[in-house]
Design brief:
about 10% strand, 4 domains, alpha/beta
């Protein structure tokens, strides 16, 4: 329990109206319960629901009489009405509390009295003080009036308070989903109800069937509130808090949507009830799938809503030019339902103009690179923006996953190429071995970038994958920006990037629960619209770099 002296607490809390209301309530409550006398070395406790932990306000022997306790209440009430009266306080004495109380001169405080007398509570306490001073008694009606006004301030828990409760309890309280509340739960859809204010550390852990998580209101979060929920496809939040949740849960920003844009379960069920298997696509269906895709819905969610397979959805989006997806057997595109999920796309080749050069500092990224990782990192950012149109935030871990996925197809070229990237290839082999044991269709050299990226996000974060990702995010985000900040240290690059100095590509946010990149809005549309040209150009730069090694 924190212990402090009265005036010290007031000085640190005088600007906080809520804190002063809590102090006044607690002292008033204690005074009424103890007959307006505080015993020697006693204290007034502000309990844990108002702070991260309880605070004991030390009450000295200066308050061991009724008249001094009532004067204390009057002083705090005056400070609540006008914080400038703090200058009238001295040491543990407040405004109307003095060691020479018998010689108290009311005229000295006439201005304060006149300023505050319109407040009913102040007027009531002043009446009690006058009775004590002149009659040495407290009128019962005045005590009842004071007691009737004893109303606790509206409870406003702090983040520290919530964390303490979340770690000390299990399951769910009225306001908190405690640490590790849901481990290996088998629900598919869960709503964090209105009134919940805090979701604790790893509250949703290893919920393999959880596909939709909803938040009815705004909550605070502990550390990694969602972890290893591999089938989580959408997080639905109130529209007015959409930006807040994307900031607080940066790792899941691509699947966070608001209530207005989410595909409702009812809508999904209604659509699925109509069998579309084997049917040709209508114009209305194409418009609908384009709208769902534009809203950021996952392939699985769209397939569920449309009553078709994920393969059919991907094929149709590819045909509409919205994603990079083509079949090895072109005849199958007319009847996507006949395709099975084990079919993989050809590695797409991008034909770019011979004289094509990216604009600005982008063209200097390969020139200043000390290894291929800077080139792969940039390609990963371009691919991530293509996969999640409209996003501006990418976690460093997500970018590293995408970088590994980008390297997957590039390193399939030949053995000589793979020999020049031993660390990456060792990581890729580790991923292939994991996929053989844990996914229906194991990854191969011909697997699509999107499938590799999805597999990486579902894998346990340990072993050679973690080693590779940690090595990437430690240096590469900074070294890539040396195209803009040549000769600067990593810390300087991070600092300059935060304000997009020199119109750099992205800002590096380090001091968050999970570090992330914020893509410069001046570059985002260009990276999206120039995807094919940029990937083609940097693919060539990547192979040229390796040949020179």
């Amino acid at each position: 329990m924190i212990k402090t002296q009265l005036l010290k607490y007031i000085k640190t809390s005088i600007e906080d109206e809520y804190a002063m209301e809590v102090l006044y309530y607690c002292i008033k409550d204690a005074a009424l319960k103890n007959g307006f006398v505080f015993n020697n070395e006693s204290g007034v406790e502000i309990n844990g629901k108002y702070h991260g932990e309880p605070i004991l306000i030390g009450m000295s022997n200066r308050f061991q009489s009724q008249i001094k306790t009532v004067a204390l209440l009057l002083s705090i009430r005056a400070l609540m009405l006008n914080k400038n009266y703090l200058k009238c306080c001295n040491d543990d004495y407040l405004i109307f509390t003095s060691s020479t109380f018998g010689k108290f001169q009311w005229i000295e405080f006439a201005t304060i009295l006149m300023d505050c007398m319109d407040d009913d509570e102040f007027s009531c306490i002043y009446g009690i003080l006058e009775e004590l001073y002149f009659e040495d008694a407290i009128p019962e009606d005045a005590i009842e009036e004071l007691r009737s006004g004893l109303t606790a301030p509206e409870y406003r828990g702090t983040e520290k308070y919530y964390k303490n409760i979340a770690s000390a309890n299990k399951g769910i309280t009225d306001e908190i989903i405690c640490n590790n509340a849901f481990i290996n739960e088998d629900f598919e859809d869960y709503t964090v109800p209105e009134g919940i204010a805090f979701v604790g550390n790893t509250a949703f852990s290893y919920c393999s069937n959880l596909t939709t998580l909803r938040f009815a209101g705004k909550v605070l979060f502990g550390i990694f509130p969602i972890i290893e929920c591999r089938n989580l496809k959408q997080i639905i939040v109130p529209t007015e808090h959409l930006d807040y949740y994307k900031e607080e849960l940066p790792y899941y920003q691509s699947i966070i949507t608001d209530k207005e844009k989410a595909i409702s379960v009812e809508q999904q069920e209604e659509t699925i009830s109509e069998s579309n298997k084997g049917k040709r696509w209508t114009t209305d269906e194409e418009e609908k799938v384009k709208r769902f895709f534009g809203l950021g819905q996952s392939f699985k969610a769209i397939a569920h809503a449309m009553g078709r397979t994920e393969v059919a959805i991907k094929a149709r989006l590819g045909k509409l030019g919205l994603i990079d997806y083509t079949y090895t057997n072109e005849a199958e595109t007319e009847n996507e339902e006949s395709c099975d999920d084990n079919k993989v796309a050809e590695i797409r080749k991008y034909d770019i103009p011979e004289d094509y050069v990216p604009k600005g500092k982008l063209k200097t990224i390969p020139k200043q690179a000390t290894n291929t990782y800077d080139i792969l990192w940039f390609m990963a950012i371009v691919e991530k923006l293509q996969l999640d149109p409209g996003t501006s935030l990418i976690t460093l871990k997500d970018a590293a996953f995408m970088m590994i996925a980008v390297s997957w197809g590039l390193l399939a070229k030949d053995k000589e190429t793979r020999n020049k990237e031993p660390e990456l290839c060792e990581c890729l082999e580790y991923i292939v071995r994991w996929s053989k044991r844990n996914v229906v269709y194991e990854l191969s050299s011909r697997s699509r970038l999107e499938d590799v990226y999805s597999c990486l996000k579902s894998m346990p974060y340990h072993g050679k994958l973690r080693d590779m990702v940690d090595a990437i995010i430690k240096k590469v985000p900074y070294s890539t920006l040396k195209a803009w900040f040549q000769g600067k240290s990593d810390s300087e690059i991070a600092r300059y990037s935060m304000t997009f100095e020199k119109a750099c590509l992205y800002a590096i946010h380090e001091n968050k629960k999970e570090p992330f990149l914020e893509i410069n809005k001046g570059w985002r549309n260009y990276l999206y619209s120039e995807h094919d040209n940029l990937i083609g150009y940097f693919t060539k730069q990547y192979y040229d770099f390796l040949e020179e090694c």
